[in-house]
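Task: fold both queries, return tokens.
Query 1:
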Amino acid sequence: MSVRAGIVVTGTEVLTGRVADLNGPWVADRLLELGVELAHITICGDRAADIEAQLRFLAAEGVDLIVTTGGLGPTADDMTVQTVADFAGRDLVLDTALEAKIAAILKSLMARFTGVDFEAVMAANRKQAMVPLGADVLDPVGTAPGVVVPGTPTVLVLPGPPRELQAMWPAAMASAVVQQAIAGRTVYHQETVRIFGLPESGLAETLREAEGVVAGFADLEITTCLRRGEVEMVTRYEPHSAEAYRRLMALMRERHGSMIFSEDGSLVDDQVARLLGGRRIATAESCTAGLLAARLTDRPGSSAYVAGGVVAYANQAKIDLLGVDPALIEAHGAVSQEVAEAMALGAVERFGADTAVAITGVAGPDGGTPEKPVGTVWFCVRLAEGVTVIRSLQLPGARPDVRERSTTVAMHLLRRTLLDEFGSLTT
């Protein structure tokens, strides 16, 4: 049986949603890298009884390691260390060496302020130097130390600020107590496949078929989700199940080969960035509020290939900023193939680009007509080599859904156009 772990994220601000939990997913990824199976992530408020209840729940689940995050500060609502000590049946003792380290950190932090009573501040922070008897102490990154409390299960107590927790993680993993707790860990492979143009129900049908024809399918842990209009399939497995995963992927390629655009986890955004190497792209958007340009520029080195973009909702803006002929708008409407083509040409000319993408559509909630209902979107990709690709789709959902799906469609249309014109993604 593999080593199992649980995570307890503490903090009323996290429980109530005022602060997003960044620590749970980060620690989960690190545990996966170590070959530790994550059983549960729980979130509870800053109440000793609730923290203890989570610890007892995870212990009853038979986990080997519990990782807690948060509740290590000097204030009254920071009670994780005391609660863990009580759970483990250990007294809290003052670590004088740790107290001296915290004092030195505080003096350095307070040097920039005047009129502050150091002794009063130190008295409040002395709480942070109280550790469970027999625990390993992890030196503070801020002012809060971490601790590793031996036992069954072992409890690793880490600070709440992500910067501090992440910086402390290597020292935590170097602890002999932690290493002993996870000594039986295995090796996991995790593969991510991304698919575009396939409904999640279509993938579910293929997986049901695979269950009956792929030997060892039950040993593959598969999760699927719809993300930004794409279906993502993440498969985790141990080395002995590699052949089962190979057979699953053979079936996937047979059923959905043309729709699978990534078998290595790469995003379409990253693939487009690679395909644009040496080119200059411009965007012209009406209905997507500049979200396509944002996706293109949200990649390292994007300034080398993104020339600029225009967001033009009003017809006059399309005329003035992109040079769209008013007669086209009058004859065909702003949401049309003709205007999408003119917007793409205008983006190329305005920014001196060799590649352009234009989007014009009805995102809603108002403005649709029987001929062009909400969700009607036209796309145009134009290359300086003379290639122009046009598509129109009827996208479901409210305004945010139409906008998000439109940018995803545009990225895939651009990817396919570049691949057809210039070749594969292989380097």
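Query 1 returned. Query 2:
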Amino acid sequence: MKPLKTLPILYNGTHCYNIELQTSFEGLADSLKELEMLSRRVCIVTDSNVEALYGAGIQNILEAAGCNKVFCFVFPAGEEHKTLDVIE
């Protein structure tokens, strides 16, 4: 599935990875296979509102695709919690 939009992430001018925006999770397993992510650990970082809607479904897709270990870090919803201190 072709991404709706791709955002390249740079660090000190060097490309690190892309963020791909999609309208559904339909192609998630295939994308992980293409990226050779299935043998790696995956961490889902999300807020409590999004986790309640999509968390279990995404975790099931990742595990069914064969991801080695899937972790989920859920922080409280709200802009005041979207900080590096919360993630640390």
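Both queries returned. Flag for query 2: The helical segments are 28-34, 48-65, 84-87.
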